Amino acid sequence: MAWRVAYHPEVPKDLEAIPANMRDRIRRAIEGRLVTRPEEYGERLRKDLAGAWKLRVGDYRVVFDLDQKHALVTVLLIAHRRSAYGEVAGRRREKP
User: Fold this and answer.
1) What is the mean pLDDT of residues 43-71?
2) Rounded CA gap, 23 and 60, in Å?
């Protein structure tokens, strides 16, 4: 089953802060992994972020939600691993 990908409105700003070579790796990871089998490549988050998932791409994290019923991956945040989890809670509340 092919999954569709939607992006939170803040994701383009996230990408501006990431080096160009990493942006390309992240794009390929989203297109190659999340579109085909997000549950296999992603890892569930716990505690305050239960229900969200992460995809590791080097030192960066793609944090996303899954909508199984509509086969939709919603990318909430793309950030360095040190700062990724602090921002994502607010974005989950204001999903597009």
Assistant:
1) 96
2) 10
